[in-house]
Amino acid sequence: MFLYKERESNKYRKRIIIVTIVLIVFSIITLVTGRAPSSIETILKDTIANVEYYVIKTPIQYIGNLFSEYNDLKDVYEENALLKEQLDKYAREAALNETLSLELEDLKELTKIDFLPTDYNVRYTKVIARDVESWSNEVTIDLGETSGIKEGMAVISAKGMIGTVTNVEKISATVSLLSAENAKSQIPVMIISEGNEYYGLLNKYDLESKSYSVTLLSDVEKIEKDAKVVTSGLGGVGKSPKGILIGTVDSYTPKKNATESVCQVKPSVDFDDLNYVAVVQRVNTE
Amino acid sequence: MKENHLFKCFIIILICFIIDSTISFFLPYNYTKSSMTIVPYIGMMMFTLLVKSLESVEKYFYASICGVYYTVVYSNSLAIYILIYCLIAFVRTHLIKIESFSILESSIFSIMTIFACEIAVYWLMWITNMTSYPIQDFALMRLIPTLLVNFGLSFIVWLVHENIELEVKA
Q1: Would you call B132 and A130 a contact, using CB atoms and an 8 Å cutoff?
Q2: In the A/B pair of chains, how many CB contacts fall below 8 A?
Q3: pTM for this one?
Q4: Beta bridge partners of residue A193, listed in sequence order
């Protein structure tokens, strides 16, 4: 009996040692090779993120919102007056928008163009998780493959583009923010300055200047300050459509070689306030 | 019995990681690294206290499982946490042989562990070009606030651990 127990204990110890060695080797290999997470790891991560969000974080958020809504009640009267004023402007803008949309539809029919690079639908969603250690600029949203989300789609907040979808699972997706210092991909952008359009690539976010670095694709002598920077829609099928606001030009230093000319762009969004976002689904035939 | 204790330790650390994740979810976002960043390390502090109660082989097994779980679920960075947790288990077993910590000893050890962990991860991020966060900004905006907040939390962790230990012994 005693020998049996000892044998079992030895077996248990051996199993534990093997698992530990395997995990340590896995860790070293990952560190050396910089391996990307496997699908099992991503599924596990997203499942736990969803469970945590709906079981723990949502009830806490709900209670927190109740308190903030109670505090907001005090400002309702002033806000209401301001909103009424803006409502008149909104009605005027909506009528103009409708007229322009109709005109656009007529022009599309005349020229036999089905979709424009600016056509897109948005799917509203919320941020359910972010990395605890705060090093990577990634967030998880609760829309995934089942909602038609695909890699490369643009993600926006109320003030403009915040990032792109870099990994898609069944019910959730990972969004890499434009504030990442080490961007996973370059975003094709368009600068509208003094009636001219200049094309470039958004490379990364510069911590020092707190702005995006945009490399221009053509020789440009001057770009006016505060010129609007939007997506160019040249990323390809399923990527970001044309015309999503990214920011405004902060400074521009022309160089002899166009690819060395870098434009600093001030982000239009506030990255510190990202609870509700929307995924932009570009409308195209493919 | 041994397996039962190991399982309990896993459950405790799991709860601590969930608390860490929940705290950081409700802390203000700071993606542009322009303001203060606080990272809660309740899981790691509880780990430093629990790891001593396990047997030698189990300690490293426990450390590697905790490291894998934290890396896969919460950390998008490199898999250094497996090595960090194993290193904590080694230090706690072979270098600091005190059987059970007093509240102050526990807080000091926890803070030193978090300090080492933060520096190691920052260094790794720096050499792999994942960040260009200046060291003085890192120290003032992230390291010091994180250490101060976790120093406060370490007292609560120690008290919770003492209660858990009493329940296990009973």
Answers
A1: no
A2: 134
A3: 0.79
A4: A196
